[in-house]
Amino acid sequence: MTLSVILPTYNEKDNIIEIIEKIVKSIGNISCKYQIVVVDDNSPDKTGEICRKYFYKNKQIIIYIRKKEKGFASAIYFGIKKSKGDTIIVMDTDFSHDPALIPIMISKMETCDIVIGSRYAKNGGGEDKKRYLLSKIYNFYLKSILKIEISDFLFGYFCVRKTFLIKKGLLNKNIFTGFGDYFIRLAYYINKSGGTFLEIPAFYKSRIHGTSKSDLKKMLFTYTKTSLQLLLRNLYK
Ligand SMILES: Nc1nc2c(ncn2[C@@H]2O[C@H](COP(=O)(O)OP(=O)(O)OP(=O)(O)O)[C@@H](O)[C@H]2O)c(=O)[nH]1
Ligand SMILES: [Mg+2]
């Protein structure tokens, strides 16, 4: 097995070095061939340059600084396209996603097509109680209308085989667009193509350094629009 960890970054200068070091340590427990792919959208705080300077001798840390394209889902798409590993892990850079889960995710890949971190699996949780609860309600809505057996569409920490995405036609720009709504689309099309999901408990830690790029009102609007579009697609097919 070869692993590529995709890290989208925007203004994460105070997180990027430490998160990469924690990821490397966590991968050390399973000793596989790996690379870490940072996709930075020309962050004004110089996240990309800082990372390049720090890891310039390390060939396993690949850093892309995109000057023309930008966007969260688009960065993930770009990172997966560029990655060399057969197994892909996508995670945030702000420590909301615990690098210690990497070996667990990989071990579970033998039994499914995608492993997803979930706050709502038994023993999962979230530090920000208000966010945890609001997200729980919204996830319940998504699960009910899309009829997909997963409890957390919005966590954004997952492991999947690149060949699976390619084979099913899911490594597709129309899916990987926007912010977290891309994952709602991805889950929908994985389910449609007969893919199997496995959730593992995860705890969402609130960020300590840097600022959030997500906008609650905008997210609510976009995610609802996305889910209704998918629902209509389901009804009229
Ligand atoms: N390349 C790239 N990365 C992004 C972009 N927007 C967000 N990110 C990264 O994507 C991850 C998730 O973004 P966050 O700002 O943490 O969004 P969030 O988790 O909803 O918000 P928090 O409450 O701050 O945790 C982080 O690693 C960001 O640096 C973007 O436009 N381009
Ligand atoms: Mg975050």
Plain-language structure description:
With 237 residues, the protein is of the alpha/beta class. The chain has one domain (2-235): Spore Coat Polysaccharide Biosynthesis Protein SpsA, Chain A. The protein is 40% helix and 18% strand. It has helices at 16-28, 47-54, 72-82, 102-108, 129-146, 162-167, 181-192, 216-235, and strands at 2-9, 33-40, 61-65, 87-90, 114-118, 125-126, 158-161, 197-201, 203-204. The strands form two sheets. Strands 3-2-1-4-7-5-8 form a seven-stranded mixed beta sheet. A two-stranded parallel sheet has the order 6-9. Strand 2, helix 2 (47-54) and strand 3 form a beta-alpha-beta unit. Helix 7 (181-192) packs parallel to helix 8 (216-235). The chain is globular, with a radius of gyration of 17 Å. It starts with a strand and ends with a helix. The site of magnesium ion has 4 residues, from loops.
